[in-house]
């Protein structure tokens, strides 16, 4: 499995690039949003990658962050969402936008992606809503890392991260608060919800706190 590529950008196409890694050229498909962030031809580039393996096809897809890669993996698990549709959704909304739409049940936002209709968008939100807090926690944790540990230097996949000690720590609460703020909730409402969730779930992880706080913040009635 190819999880990351670092090399020189040799060519830029409409929906893909060619990365030269020590003399070997890799064609990597990317979303419009990712393509817009990449450097110019001839410059160094580093992307997380996901390899699609089929009987008659091998394709690499590139992402600027592990959070974006994780959303691609989850989107691909939804019936009716292939690689092209996943990249269209990520290109239209970005990783944070996808998390916001799914966590809030805003399926209409997902329909802005080319080729994604209302029924498919609703399925995306329904199938992935319970998984959104975990990815949001990953994103909040990544935003809180020091500059010395830039995303392009991260080598540990999400599933291989070391387990954190039990307990709704200040760090877990801070990351949960960051994720809720990123969804657009006001600081006071988000802080109150996280505090209440932490009090009710003293051994909660970041994802558990986010999930519980979202339930507390959901409209009543």
UniProtKB/TrEMBL annotation:
Query: Cross-referenced Pfam families, in alphabetical order?
Result: HHH_5, RuvA_C, RuvA_N
List keywords of the entry alphabetically: ATP-binding, Cytoplasm, DNA damage, DNA recombination, DNA repair, DNA-binding, Helicase, Hydrolase, Nucleotide-binding
Q: Which residues form the Holliday junction DNA helicase RuvA C-terminal domain?
A: 172-218
Localization per Swiss-Prot or TrEMBL: Cytoplasm
What function is annotated for this protein?
A: The RuvA-RuvB-RuvC complex processes Holliday junction (HJ) DNA during genetic recombination and DNA repair, while the RuvA-RuvB complex plays an important role in the rescue of blocked DNA replication forks via replication fork reversal (RFR). RuvA specifically binds to HJ cruciform DNA, conferring on it an open structure. The RuvB hexamer acts as an ATP-dependent pump, pulling dsDNA into and through the RuvAB complex. HJ branch migration allows RuvC to scan DNA until it finds its consensus sequence, where it cleaves and resolves the cruciform DNA.
Subunit composition and interactions: Homotetramer. Forms an RuvA(8)-RuvB(12)-Holliday junction (HJ) complex. HJ DNA is sandwiched between 2 RuvA tetramers; dsDNA enters through RuvA and exits via RuvB. An RuvB hexamer assembles on each DNA strand where it exits the tetramer. Each RuvB hexamer is contacted by two RuvA subunits (via domain III) on 2 adjacent RuvB subunits; this complex drives branch migration. In the full resolvosome a probable DNA-RuvA(4)-RuvB(12)-RuvC(2) complex forms which resolves the HJ.
Q: What is this protein called?
A: Holliday junction branch migration complex subunit RuvA
Question: Gene encoding this polypeptide?
Answer: ruvA
């Amino acid at each position: 499995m190819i999880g990351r590529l670092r090399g020189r950008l040799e060519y830029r196409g409409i929906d893909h690039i060619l990365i030269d890694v020590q003399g070997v050229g890799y064609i990597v498909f990317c979303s419009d949003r990712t393509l817009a962030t990449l450097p110019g031809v001839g410059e160094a580039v580093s992307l997380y990658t996901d390899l699609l393996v089929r009987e008659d096809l091998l394709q690499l897809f590139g992402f600027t962050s592990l959070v974006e890669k994780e959303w691609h993996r989850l989107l691909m698990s939804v019936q009716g969402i292939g690689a092209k549709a996943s990249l269209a959704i990520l290109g239209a909304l970005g990783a944070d936008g996808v998390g916001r739409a799914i966590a809030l049940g805003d399926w209409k936002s997902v329909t802005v992606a080319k080729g994604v209709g209302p029924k498919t968008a609703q399925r995306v939100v329904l199938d992935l809503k319970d998984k959104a807090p975990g990815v949001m926690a990953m994103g909040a944790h990544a935003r809180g890392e020091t500059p010395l540990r830039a995303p392009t230097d991260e080598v540990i996949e999400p599933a291989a991260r070391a387990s954190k000690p039990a307990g709704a720590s200040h760090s877990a609460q801070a990351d949960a608060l960051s994720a809720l703020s990123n969804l657009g909730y006001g600081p006071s409402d988000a802080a109150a919800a996280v505090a209440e969730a932490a009090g009710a779930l003293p051994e909660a992880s970041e994802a558990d706190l986010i999930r519980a706080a979202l339930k507390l913040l959901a409209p009543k009635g």
